[in-house]
Write a structure and sequence with these properties.
The complex is a heterodimer of chains A (537) and B (451). Chain A is α/β, with parallel strands linked by helices and 537 residues long. Chain A folds into two domains: 208 residues, P-loop containing nucleotide triphosphate hydrolases (Rossmann fold, 3-Layer(aba) Sandwich), CATH 3.40.50.300; 185 residues, 3-Layer(aba) Sandwich (Rossmann fold). Chain A is 36% helix and 13% strand. Chain A contains 17 helices and 15 strands. Chain A has a six-stranded mixed beta sheet with strand order 2-3-1-4-5-6, with helices on both faces. Chain A has a six-stranded mixed beta sheet with strand order 9-8-10-7-11-12, sandwiched between helices. The two termini of chain A are 40 Å apart. Chain B is an alpha/beta fold and 451 residues long. Chain B has two domains: 204 residues, P-loop containing nucleotide triphosphate hydrolases (Rossmann fold), CATH 3.40.50.300; 212 residues, Phosphoglycerate mutase-like (Rossmann fold, 3-Layer(aba) Sandwich). In chain B, 40% of the residues lie in helices and 15% in strands. Chain B has 15 helices and twelve strands. In chain B, the strands form two sheets. A six-stranded mixed beta sheet of chain B has the order 2-3-1-4-5-6, sandwiched between helices. In chain B, β5 and β6 form a beta hairpin. Chain B is globular. The chains are: A alpha/beta (537), B alpha/beta (451). At the A-B interface, β6, α10, α13, β9 and α16 of A face β6, α7, α10, β9 and α13 of B.
């Protein structure tokens, strides 16, 4: 179904069409996004306070980070739109006919928005966050999905541990817009009664009979047990893997860069230099920091470059080295200063500023490549307890973007100064960030977004990426899928030289106007603000 | 620069995924695919660098009994049989302990029926005493067709049934299964709620996963959820001969030579002849594989992870030039070709890590043709044919030859099809002298001919 849509997108050559059809800007899409075929609707199922919204938001953040455009549609939001003032749990009684009508209406409106997102706005996954506890409602959704040619995958959260449920209610429901007054007992009481309303009509997924042909995962007791049925494709298997690796235990992740290195002092990028004297001081300060905060069971991870290893050495604790935490490979620009790059490769320098996220250094990597490379680190961070990751500027930006839900536009400009530790603590639906500057001076390696940069639609600079190949011009419009990293070359219009594959001529249009939109909701609820400074620009 | 955790043993250089060793225990009636899963899992874990070994209790029993008479041995009321089987299980567990505690293994797969709670309890106690973690893998299947297929594919060729006809063997085996059925206690959601396990139902249609406690278990679960037994074939080949190949240069990003283009055409004819159902084609993001795929006239996917090994400072050099400019590096590479990393480049070990998602996706897919490169093809082949890290870098992957891999029984059938187009040879064997002081002549002893 989506193949046809993609063909339609690819066959029109005008820039106008390109601008409005985001899906056709294939070279920007990550490999993960290309392993999905038809758009998929993920449907949450479960009584209130079972962690559906928590999982929806987290999953959406993860999928967007790996490059699959995903959006959450929370039915509660629609309901609050329709019924301005929430009075009490009576609204949710199953014999309250008028309320039932309103709730069904909300569901239909939400489904329409889902359809628009998946079919017209270039979304690939829509997460439908509601209780969906009755077969009737699920049948309605399935009919909708079939009508539109989407795939559907159910995620049911089942929990009978009263402590977990109570903690859940306290953490997220008490601050919900439904309960402007904060009398905890009253909130708790009303909410528990709300849950009872749903219990009356709750029909859990039945894997043995009624629902045996559906694709779903049943998450039992916050991940203690899982039942997985009929996984259809790659993206569903990734979703299952992710859901099986996340947990709700409280833990903190500490991110910092290596201590200042000799290359940093000289203004050189990349390379494998050792720590400068100030860098060594930072390593000592880091050790004191860890001791002071009495971080028990802290795991320490570094890359396989000298500067992070030297930093970890000072801590006198066991640490693990990950090659995939190595800094972004700057290819031919390795070990140059920005000035040297500007002098030697002025074109490349300009291109990078146009689209820092997708730009790939010749013979090197792009931020987009980095994200793909770092995915196992993220998965493992989700599984772990307290971890300190000593890494590099670009790497840290990618990791931070995952936790703080920053998109491709902001990621490459996030501020990650030397000698500063960021503490990330999951809280409610988002992440609390605390910044600790360890009082050891260092150079500033941050390069801001250039002012007055060339707007993307007028980019006429043809970019040649010398280490990616040039395929011959595609005479017939075929759906071509690019599984990993940037698509090397896709002309907007055929040029004569492109018809002769022998020639080394190539044009890669960069900075095109139609970036696939990553439409995501903010993961920070309005009520909870960030403590201290956010790390983004 | 060696930190307290700097792994000295090259085996540990990959991410430390396990703290204490893990004992994987299969559970299930006969002919439910336990040995298939054990062997496949063992192969996968070894390939990604986790030392793993399987211990099949049936093998121990065959050692002990020498001659298998009939299913009567397995009757629950056959006291002598029960005693011998228990002894064999104990003997296998001892070897497990030896492997995990003494020989440095990280995962042991204990492959037996383990159908009673009692037996599983014994194993768990054993694991606790020795500081191993336990993870059960249960296979449940009631589809008679699947079971029959299983028996035909792997049981008939089993040493137990060497001297019987097929009908006799099948009959006896069905009786054998019955012996287990009465005492079978499957893993139970309530009674076994504290145990870590995955229950695979109906060959992967459904899974029940309970209490995954660490990284290695979550990787195992992910792997098991992605494999299938639908018959299919995987075709591996390299790009057509490239211009740099002709010059004897490694790496780079050149286009096809005229012979390479000829190969691409022949590849197209070959595929058309084979009439492969729903064939997917994958290439790397380098010119030579893309140009090869272009000639096939069908859609294909490009994977960056399939790019050739990065030779860093040695990119586009001839072996003679490497010897001239970097004789030390050249010798070090010959000493340990699997782990050796080109300066500013990669090692085979890095390649394997890079290729893991490709392997995972190959497992999910059905018919696939992968057009890749020499080092990459060696890594993929080593996974399918269970080659060690010593053998891997010297596997022969000549140009213009397609390897067809078809999973069969517990392994993989390989058919090699040379498409009849001449090409240079790019295979360099390990020379005799790998000493860093060696002469140029010794170093270049095995370099293949080129223009």
């Amino acid at each position: 179904m989506s193949c046809t849509q993609r063909d339609i997108g690819a066959s029109t050559n005008s820039t106008e069409a390109k601008r409005t059809d985001p899906r056709c800007n294939e070279k920007k899409c990550s490999w993960a996004s290309y392993m999905t075929n038809s758009p998929t609707m993920i449907v949450m199922i479960g009584l209130p306070a079972r962690g559906k919204t928590y999982m929806s938001k987290k999953l959406t953040r993860y999928l967007n980070w790996i490059g699959v455009p995903t959006k959450v549609f929370n039915l509660g939001v629609y309901r609050r739109e329709a019924v301005r003032a929430y009075k009490s749990y009576d609204f949710f009684r199953h014999d309250n006919e008028e309320a039932m009508k309103i709730r069904k209406q909300c569901a239909l409106v939400a489904l329409q928005d889902v359809r628009v997102y998946l079919a017209e706005e270039g979304g690939q996954i829509a997460v439908f966050d509601a209780t969906n506890t009755t077969r009737e409602r699920r049948d309605l959704i399935q009919a909708f999905v079939k009508e539109n040619g989407f795939k559907v995958f159910f995620v049911e959260s089942v929990c009978d541990d009263p402590d977990v449920i109570a903690a859940n209610i306290l953490e997220v429901k008490v601050s919900s817009p439904d309960y402007p007054e904060k009398h905890r007992e009253r909130v708790m009481e009303d909410f528990l009664k709300r849950i009872e309303c749903y219990k009356v009509t709750y029909q859990p997924l039945d894997p043995d009979n009624y629902d045996k042909d559906l694709s779903f995962i049943k998450v039992i007791n916050v991940g203690q047990r899982f039942l997985v049925n009929r996984v259809q494709d790659y993206i569903q298997s990734k979703i299952v893997y992710y859901l099986m690796n996340i947990h709700v235990h409280s833990h903190s992740i500490y991110l910092c860069r290596h201590g200042e290195s000799n290359h940093n002092v000289e203004g050189r990028i990349g390379g494998d230099a050792e720590l400068s004297p100030r860098g060594k001081k930072f390593a000592h300060a880091l050790r004191d920091f860890i001791e002071e905060y009495e971080l028990s069971d802290l795991k320490v991870w570094t890359s396989q470059l000298r500067r992070t290893i030297q930093t970890a050495e000072e801590l006198s604790v066991p640490y693990e080295q990950w090659k995939i935490l190595n800094e972004i490979d700057a290819g031919v620009c390795e070990e140059m200063t920005y000035q040297m790059i500007q002098e030697t490769f002025p074109e490349e320098f300009a291109l990078r500023d146009q689209d820092k996220y997708h730009y790939r250094y010749p013979g090197g990597e792009s931020y987009q490549d980095l994200v793909q490379r770092l995915e196992p680190v993220i998965m493992e961070l989700e599984r772990q307890g307290n971890v300190l990751v000593i890494c590099h500027q670009a790497v840290m930006r990618c990791l931070l973007a995952y936790f703080l839900d920053k998109g491709a536009d902001d990621l490459p400009y996030m501020k990650c100064p030397l000698h500063t530790v960021l503490k990330l603590t999951p809280v409610a639906y988002g992440c609390k960030v605390e910044m600790f500057y360890l009082n050891v001076e260092a150079v500033n390696t941050h390069r801001d977004r250039p002012l007055g940069k060339v707007t993307r639609d007028s980019a006429l600079i043809h970019r040649r990426n010398s280490y990616t190949p040039l395929s011959s011009y595609d005479q017939v419009k075929r759906p071509r899928l690019y599984s990993a990293g940037n698509q090397p070359w896709l002309p907007l219009a055929p040029t004569p030289s492109a018809l002769m594959p022998e020639r080394l001529q190539s044009q890669t249009r960069t900075g095109s106007s139609c970036l696939t939109p990553c439409v995501k909701e903010s993961t920070l609820t309005a009520a909870k603000k960030l403590v201290a400074v956010s790390a983004s620009e | 620069m060696r930190g307290s955790c700097r792994p000295n043993n090259p085996r540990d250089r990959t991410v430390c995924m396990t703290n204490c060793p893990t004992l994987i225990v299969t559970v299930g009636l006969p002919a439910r695919g336990k040995t298939y899963i054990s062997k496949k899992l063992t192969r996968y874990l070894n390939w990604i660098g986790v030392p793993t070994k399987e211990f099949n209790v049936g093998d121990y029993r065959r050692e002990c009994l020498k001659i298998y008479k009939s299913f009567e041995f397995f009757r629950p009321d056959n006291e002598e049989g029960v005693k011998i089987r228990r002894q064999c299980a104990m003997s296998a567990l001892n070897d497990v302990r030896q492997y995990l505690s003494v020989e440095g293994g990280q995962v042991a797969v204990f492959d037996a029926t383990n159908t009673t709670r009692d037996r599983r309890g014994t194993i768990m106690k054993f694991a606790e005493q020795n500081g191993f973690k336990v993870f059960f893998v249960e296979s449940v299947c009631e589809d008679p067709e699947v079971i029959a297929q299983n028996i035909v594919q792997v049981k008939l060729g089993n040493p137990d049934y060497m001297n019987c006809s097929s009908e006799e063997a099948i009959e006896d085996f069905m009786e054998r299964i019955k012996c287990y059925e009465t005492s079978y206690q499957p893993l139970d959601e309530d009674l076994d709620s504290d145990v870590s396990y995955i229950k695979i139902m109906d060959v992967g249609r459904r899974y029940l996963v309970n209490r995954v406690v660490d990284h290695i278990q979550s990787r195992i679960v992910y792997y098991l959820m992605n494999i299938h037994i639908t018959p299919r074939s995987i075709y591996l080949c390299r790009h057509g001969e490239s211009d740099l190949n002709i010059k004897g240069r490694i790496g780079g990003d050149s286009g096809l030579s005229s012979r390479g283009k000829e190969f691409a055409k022949r590849l197209r004819s070959f595929l058309e002849e084979q009439k492969i159902k729903d064939l997917k084609i994958w290439t790397s993001q380098m010119k030579r594989t893309i140009q090869t795929a272009e000639c096939l006239g069908v859609p294909y996917e490009q994977w960056k992870s399939l790019n050739e090994i990065d030779a860093g400072v040695c990119e586009e050099m001839m072996y003679e030039e490497i010897q001239e400019h970097f004789p030390l590096e050249f010798a070090l590479r010959d000493q340990d070709k699997y782990r050796y990393r080109y300066p500013k480049g990669e090692s085979y070990e890095d390649l394997v890590q890079r290729l893991e998602p490709v392997i995972m996706e190959l497992e999910r897919q059905e018919n696939v043709l992968v057009i890749c490169h020499q080092a990459v093809m060696r890594c993929l082949l080593a996974y399918f044919l269970d080659k060690t890290s010593h053998e891997l870098p010297y596997l022969k992957c000549p140009l213009h030859t397609v390897l067809k891999l078809t999973p069969v029984a517990y392994g993989c059938k390989v058919e090699s099809v040379y498409l009849g187009v001449d090409s240079v040879n790019t295979h360099r064997d390990r020379p005799e002298n790998v000493n860093v002081q060696r002469s140029t002549e010794d170093a270049l002893q095995t370099v293949p001919a080129h223009h």
